[in-house]
Amino acid sequence: MTRKAGKPVQSTCVKNPIGTNFTKRIWSFGGPNMLIAGCKEADYTNNFKKIVIEGFQQACRAGVLAGKTMIGICFEILCDDPITHDLDLDEVIITARNAVLASQLTAGPRLMAPIFLVEIQAYEQSLEKIKSVLQQRRAWFRKMTQPASPQCVFSHWGIIDSDPMEANSLAHKLIEQINERKAYMR
User: Are 63 and 53 in contact (CB under 8 A)?
Assistant: First the structure.
């Protein structure tokens, strides 16, 4: 409440288009990802809910693209039939994990890369060589100043705007390189 010209003014807020009970539908967070229920509470048992959450969290830790962590995805689980019988825990966990990974694939996933702000201290005659090396690493430059204190600071995550499912795209090549490194380290 604020006052304007001596009269109280009631502040208003825009209603959530998803609905007021949206928070009640949240089952789990898998890091920055969310699993919400699209079914009524009576449609599932607590045991089923725990098992599905475990499969969801496994999928979030190792996403479909190169086994890397998923970031910023919301999944909604839909229940066709109520679960009333005994469940095979491992089977449901695997099914839930595979459903999350398959839904990620159908949504057109993208890779994200860390963006760093880098300042390099160098002599003026070596700036062009440094610029050449950094451009091979997909770097871009705001300005070239000299000399500066050397530091590398994480700035944010940026989306690599190419389709990882398309052969010879930048994202596809990066996934292949990641998988080669993983195989080499085993």
Answer: no
The C-alpha angle with vertex 24 and arms to 18 and 26, in degrees rounded to 5, equals: 80
Q: Cα-flanking dihedrals φ and ψ of residue 76, to 5°?
A: -120, 125
Average confidence score pLDDT of the chain: 76
Q: Are 130 and 120 in contact (CB under 8 A)?
A: yes
Predicted confidence (pLDDT) at residue 11 exceeds the cutoff of 60: no
In whole angstroms, give the CA distance from residue 2 to residue 71: 39
Q: Cα dist. 6→2, 9, 11 in Å?
A: 10, 9, 15
User: With 70 as the cut, is the pLDDT of residue 7 above it?
Assistant: no
Alpha-carbon distance of 126 to 128, in angstroms, equals 6
pTM above 0.85, yes or no: no
Q: Residue 93 — φ and ψ, nearest 5°?
A: -60, -50
- pLDDT above 60 (res 126): yes
Distance from C-alpha of 172 to C-alpha of 182, rounded to nearest angstrom: 15
Mean pLDDT of 101-118: 86
Q: Which residues make beta-bridge pairs with 77?
A: 37
- Burial (Cβ within 10 Å: 0-12, 13-18, ≥19) of residue 167: exposed
